[in-house]
Amino acid sequence: MIDDMFNFETFGNSMICLFMITTSAGWDGLLNPIMNTPPDCDPDIENPGTTVSGNCGSPALGIVFFTTYIIMSFLVVVNMYIAIILENFNVATEESSDPLCEDDFEMFYETWEKFDPDASQFIQYSKLSDFCDTLKDPLRISKPNTIKLIQMDLPLVPGDRIHCLDILLALTAQVLGDSGEMDALKASMEEKFMANNPSKVSYEPISSTLRRKQEDVAATVIQRAYRKHLLQRTVKLASYKYREKTGRRDEDVELPPETEGLLCKRISQLYGNGVKTEEPGDPPGPGGDPASLAGDPPGPGGDPASLAGDPPGPGGDPASLAGDPPARVELQSEFLLHTAPPQNASDFLRDENLRESTV
């Protein structure tokens, strides 16, 4: 519909009309007045303010113009806009579906700079857990991550250090999985890394995180087995020394489990020199005289077989240790040997005796 505002008399009014029918809505309302011919119009009527006379249109020119304009504006321009929008949408969809992008790798290198300020391309194995926890998704492996990092089997170089590229490749494989694209991406990443690092630090791995854990477990098993074996030896030797000290050992049949070695020396220090000690109620000692306690008749030679506090016998040793209880041995689950030295033990034994020795 053509009126005082929507018409083709001026350039501005014409642009308003064309913009209005860009979406092909209402273009027939502008074409209909242009199709007027006599007798529906007067070709000789005067139009005030213009030199153009008449109010008739040009049907042929109107049809050609509007047809050309609609084809160009609607079928070409609008569809071109739609195509651009769809293309950008597809690109955004592909980027969102791709688990890794350049921004993720930039984030990795920015985080790496904080843990490797000297740009040595290596970090300590002890810092690996904190480093992986500091990263952002999708490369981040949050704590607790020790088991997962061990399963990644990262190569270790001398000094318990790990190379930057090995960590990046392992984290990338953790995100992408075992896909066909991983091999091509790995080769591309190695090429870019070497190109961006002209120093090209070379290294020869000597171990890996998985192998290090296996070595630790193997060492723990061996240590546990040896502690158990050492505990059994200690119990046997301590039992033998106790029976020897209390006179309950058959000297003709029972032989000592060990006669030399550090363990034998320590147990001998704990139990003294193996002097036989008789308890109250035992039968008389050799020679027919009772191994008497304090207050009993004197033993052979007229001297009493006294308890602690009596003068020492020949050789500087106590004449009797009957008043001292035998040393007590307590074995705990921590494989510790606890003992208290006799009260009348010499200063040497008091100082050197190990009250708590790790077995």
Automatic annotation (TrEMBL):
State the UniProt keywords alphabetically.
Answer: Cell membrane, Ion channel, Ion transport, Membrane, Sodium, Sodium channel, Sodium transport, Transmembrane, Transmembrane helix, Transport, Voltage-gated channel
> Which species does this protein come from?
Collichthys lucidus (Big head croaker)
What Pfam families does UniProt report for this protein, alphabetically?
A: Ion_trans, IQ_SCN5A_C
Q: Which SUPFAM superfamilies match?
A: Voltage-gated potassium channels (SSF81324)
What's the name of the protein?
Sodium channel protein
Q: Which Gene3D superfamilies match?
A: 1.10.287.70, EF-hand (1.10.238.10), iswi atpase (1.20.5.1190)
Q: Where is the Ion transport domain?
A: 3-96
Where is this protein found? Answer: Cell membrane; Membrane
